[in-house]
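Model: You mentioned two targets. I'll fold them one after the other.
Researcher: Yes, keep them separate.
Model: Target one:
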Amino acid sequence: MNKDLLSQSERIKSNIQEEQSKRAEAKRVLDDLTKKHNEAVKKYEALLAEVEKDKKKSETDLDTAKKTFTQQQAENQKLSSEVNSNEKTISGLVAEIT
């Protein structure tokens, strides 16, 4: 009977050690995953900040392009009016000459 109790005691000790080993491994895995998660969060936040920066630059560039387009459009309309006026003047002069 003593041997049976001793055997049971050894099995229980062995099971406890096995569970402690599993717990230590689980903690190591959790710590590793937590570290990787934190690194991923940092990379994501850095990427997000970069995207926001690029978005602001793109919006600024778009606003600049719109202003430039509007200015060029106004200049083209002015030049078109001058060309039309010059063509009328030329037509009038041609009519006077002929």
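Model: Target two:
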Amino acid sequence: MSKKIIFKGNPDGCYLPFEPDLLQLDLQEPKSTEPPSDSRTKQIEELAKLSIKETRNFCFDSFTENDWAELCLRNSSFLYHPESYCLNNEARQAIVLMIHFSNKKIRIGFNCAKHLLKILTCEIVSYDIETALPIKIGVSKKDIEDILAPFQQEQKTVFDFLSSGDTQGILSDSLQKEAAELAISNLTELQNLLAIYRPGPLQYFIDYKNNSPCKLLLAQDIAEETRGVLLYHDQCELALQRMTGCTPEEAEFFRQDNSGLLKGKSYELLLQRIAKHQNVSLDDVWWNYYNPWGCYARYSVPRKYFQKRAYIDYLRTLKKLRMLPKM
């Protein structure tokens, strides 16, 4: 029994003469079987021909993880493009795997590469880039570790340096001591550190450092990723949805209107919404819901902005350590 698998960049797919039980990974990507638009493919190909300096003013906001994977396969230096901050560590590792197999003339999909990060041993079906014929390859956890070893060493070197406290020219003077104390080890921790230690009140830095429980009990699980602090706008808005049952759009409006020292026109309405949804008195709303939420909301920040700042600091560190690939 043959199985058709659609590979991004190979819209016609390929029919694989192997039994389905050999397909231990879900290689279908994307779910839609429609091929990428010609204009999108051409855009990626044109970008891949440019140097990173020449793309400085290009808007990458509409790029998806799959688009970045395609771009990096054509020009691996784009993995270090300042605008690739939207990629998390899993996506970066998956792209490293894709580049490795592509250099061996084997094409694997982005979702497949992500799955390879989680397996012990398996066989996957892909296709040979030169012949477009199906090919079956066996992959073990040791193979994956060997492929990713240089990438892992790069990250370790960068974060060991950032945690040394001697990062003049990369982190501000006020941040260097805290970076060393926290022993940051990944981009997310660096991002959180920059976000909570931005210019302005630092009242929650100690809570973050000590991983104290979130003061808004209803949102403790939301705050787990940021050590008990509702640090980002999206976290505060999600907490507000729980408190009021409002829509995401309403939560964004309420946060913007109530996150300053001077409460907005929606203040009274918000208190009533919380009281009704939680079935508590207005006094309870103030002390147990609105007040702790409002303190977090006042100092919360946009997540995406600090993702970019963290990645730029990562690239600066690579450059200072002279590890940044030539672009």
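Researcher: Noted. Anything on target two?
Model: Confidence is low (pLDDT under 50) at residues 1-34.
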